[in-house]
Specification:
The protein is of the alpha/beta class. The protein folds into two domains: 6-133 and 362-385, Enolase-like, domain 1 (2-Layer Sandwich), CATH 3.30.390; 141-352, TIM Barrel (Alpha-Beta Barrel), CATH 3.20.20. Helix content is 38%, strand content 20%. It has 14 helices and 19 strands. It has an eight-stranded parallel beta sheet, with helices on one face. Strands 5-4-1-18-19 form a five-stranded antiparallel beta sheet. It has a two-stranded antiparallel sheet with strand order 2-3. The radius of gyration is 21 Å and the shape is globular. Residues 153-244 form the Mandelate racemase/muconate lactonizing enzyme C-terminal domain. GO terms for molecular function: catalytic activity; metal ion binding. Keywords: Metal-binding.
């Protein structure tokens, strides 16, 4: 008889060395769920990062949904089918149909990343090969730089280059935002795209004027200018504006993506692994964007702590035609991490390389134990509380 399969859930609320501020949220700690599966001596590590203002999910709601998921059936499926067959089915049908798990995006992301990691370890495949059955791009990809509300524009320009694509988080004063865009244009010229992210903070009445001001200042794009799902108003705004519109919070599900296309509400999607239900689910939205003639960005959740970093990178290298790629700022937020080896961003060039495999190439280290919250053993339907050691303080 094989050893019983096991699952361990971690909730990582690690203090950040620097905060990140935007119109929808000020974040000073991470809030990720990590799931470690172990089946017949092979492990898989997954992550999700629920954000209530994006999908309506929280870490509590995802953890509660995970407790109801049929994990014994998942373990049995992993044992009964060949890994290559499961991977092909997962790419074709998704985690819900392949493993019989139903739920919202972050639950599916948590499971999909863990299962892909486990299958990658079994098959000896890296992240990009898991996400897409195609030749793996080698080399590096340039990444964008994000100016949030905690940082002055002059300090940003002095310390965060070289610049390939700049995103500016909007504030409460459109004149200040326009001055920020002008300062970036004065320093960087016309070749670097500049996008202003409103994070759903403008009303339909004021948005047209805001976009005109930003266009005059030299912006190229605006992201999520109106409240989520304002399809008619977005279409009208897009028709009147000189700026291209990217949607993020409005496009979490395939149904929302189709509405955006149907209403001609945007020029691009911001694709993020966690909000879109995992890297394979995210790849499907990229295919939809391409078919509709839209651009797309590979984005991140603020303060990802592990597999999401490398899963997003795998998605980016599978789709190098992205408008831009975000690498996140985990290296600035977390002097120490709960995974090893530490993912790398080349800050001298602002580029990233493919993450090493197999799977997403990460293991939990000794710091992770402090964040364990529950564990479950095959054959026992109950999740048992974990007793973690004292949690470490951030080393600022």
């Amino acid at each position: 008889m094989p050893e019983p399969a096991k699952a361990t859930l971690y909730r990582v609320e690690q203090p950040m060395a620097t905060s990140f501020d935007h119109p929808a949220k000020r974040r000073s700690t991470s809030d990720s769920l990590l799931l470690r599966l172990e089946v017949d001596g092979v492990t898989g590590l997954g992550e999700c990062a629920p954000r209530a203002y994006v999908t309506g999910e929280t870490s509590d709601s995802v953890a509660a949904a995970l407790r109801e998921a049929p994990l014994d059936a998942v373990f049995a499926r992993l044992r009964a089918a060949e890994p290559a067959e499961l991977l092909a089915r997962l790419r074709e049908s998704g985690v819900a149909d392949t493993f019989g798990v139903r739920g919202a995006g972050n639950l599916l992301c948590l499971l999909e990343t863990a299962l892909l990691d486990l299958l990658g370890r079994r098959l000896g495949l890296g992240g990009t090969e898991l996400v897409e059955c195609r030749k793996v791009l080698t080399g590096t990809l340039p990444v964008s730089q994000v100016l949030d509300l905690s940082l002055d524009v002059e300090e940003f320009l002095d310390t965060r280059g070289p610049f390939h694509f700049v995103k500016v988080k909007a504030g409460s004063d459109i004149r200040r935002d326009a001055a920020t865009v002008r300062a970036i244009r004065d320093r960087l010229g016309d070749k670097v795209p500049v996008m202003v992210d409103a994070n759903m903070s403008w009303s339909a009445e004021e948005a047209a004027g805001h976009l005109a001001v930003l266009c005059d200042a030299g912006a190229d794009w605006v992201e999520e200018p109106l409240s989520k799902g304002s399809w008619v108003e977005l279409a009208e705004l897009r028709a009147r504006s000189g700026l291209r519109i990217m949607l993020d919070e409005s496009v979490c599900t395939p149904e929302e993506a189709w509405r955006a296309v149907t209403f001609r509400a945007c020029d691009a999607f911001n694709i993020r692994v966690a909000k879109n239900g995992g890297p394979i689910a995210a790849a499907r939205l990229i295919a939809l964007a391409r078919a509709a003639g839209l651009a797309f960005q590979i984005g991140v959740q603020v303060a990802e702590v592990g597999p999401l970093i490398n899963a997003g990178r795998a998605l980016a290298f599978a789709h190098p035609e992205a408008l831009t790629v975000e690498a996140g700022q985990w290296d600035r937020f977390f002097p120490e991490m709960v995974v090893s080896p530490r993912p790398v961003v080349d800050r001298t060039a602002n580029t990233v390389a493919p993450a090493p495999g197999p799977g997403f190439g990460l293991e939990l280290n000794e710091r992770a134990a402090a964040w364990a919250v529950a564990h479950r053993t095959e054959g026992d339907p109950a999740w048992r509380p974990a007793t973690p050691p004292t949690r470490p303080e951030v080393n600022a």
